[in-house]
Amino acid sequence: MIPKLNFPGENFLLMAGPCVIEGNDMAFEIAEKILEITNKLHIPFVFKGSYRKANRSRIDSFQGIGDEKALSILQAVGEKFNIPTVTDIHSAAEAAIAAQYVDVLQIPAFLCRQTDLLIAAAETGKVVNIKKGQFLSAEAMQFAVNKVKDCGNNQVMLTERGTTFGYQDLVVDYRGIPVMKANGCPVIMDITHSLQQPNQSSGVTGGKPELIETIARAAIAVGADGIFIETHPNPAVAKSDGANMLRLDLLEGLLTKLVKLKQTVDSL
């Protein structure tokens, strides 16, 4: 069961981990370090890792180590550390498969309007985290929420991850957080993907990780229920999204500041 999200005195939820599962040792190293930090700061933690990357720019980009192997690693992380886990799904057929291994099914932003995918995720009975499409308004996400709830599953979260701005940049409209919270579900701020710079001529997505703290502080200030951060011990060698990841050894300092900020916001 996913931790209780937002009630007086409790911290924001953290969804964090590598972009993609690269191997057993890497996943366990990252999960153990994040859990050490979140236990110290009393932050509810969901471990994130994609078992397969299905939307790479180039055919020769790393997609994964094998679906079953990666899903088994996610399951093992959850069992060893007694924490919930989340992964992306890309088709209706994948929902029931991934649901055997993880606690939360994540709908990628590009697929948030896919009715069959939302229905399949809802019917697993798992928590469904829907990322807002880069091409959609916050108001439009009510229809994605309703598709899940109309299937009898009220365990829905929405995740803001920036809006397309031109061809190679994203911006975050923080008005969208209270708008999406009006749907009666928690809203997560995806910090690192909001700082991507897609569609680079090299075929490798760029990013602005130096602005991670800026995006995170603003999200907490306007009342986000949680934050989503991709992190890696050495983003320079990460097999996916390294350009916008947070270096793992910087996570504790950032979260410490955010906890203090949330305490201040809650006291107002």
Automatic annotation (TrEMBL):
Top-rank EC class of the record's enzyme: transferase
| SUPFAM superfamilies referenced in this protein's UniProt entry, alphabetically | Aldolase
* Presence of keyword Transferase: yes
Domain of life of the native organism: Bacteria
Q: Which reaction does it catalyse?
A: D-arabinose 5-phosphate + phosphoenolpyruvate + H2O = 3-deoxy-alpha-D-manno-2-octulosonate-8-phosphate + phosphate
GO CC terms, sorted: cytoplasm
Q: Which Gene3D superfamilies match?
A: Aldolase class I
> What GO molecular function annotation could you give as one example from this UniProt entry?
3-deoxy-8-phosphooctulonate synthase activity
Which GO terms are recorded in the biological process aspect for this UniProt protein?
lipopolysaccharide biosynthetic process
The enzyme's E.C. designation? 2.5.1.55
**What subcellular compartments does it reside in?**
Cytoplasm
Domain (DAHP synthetase I/KDSA) spans 9-265
Pfam families in alphabetical order: DAHP_synth_1
* InterPro entries cross-referenced by the UniProt entry: Aldolase_TIM (IPR013785), DAHP1/KDSA (IPR006218), KDO8P_synthase (IPR006269)
Pathway(s) annotated for this protein in UniProt:
Bacterial outer membrane biogenesis; lipopolysaccharide biosynthesis; Carbohydrate biosynthesis; 3-deoxy-D-manno-octulosonate biosynthesis; 3-deoxy-D-manno-octulosonate from D-ribulose 5-phosphate: step 2/3
Identify the keywords attached in UniProt to this record, alphabetized.
Cytoplasm, Transferase
Reply yes or no: does the keyword Cell membrane apply: no
Record's family?
A: Belongs to the KdsA family.
Protein name (record): 3-deoxy-8-phosphooctulonate synthase
Species = Mangrovibacterium marinum
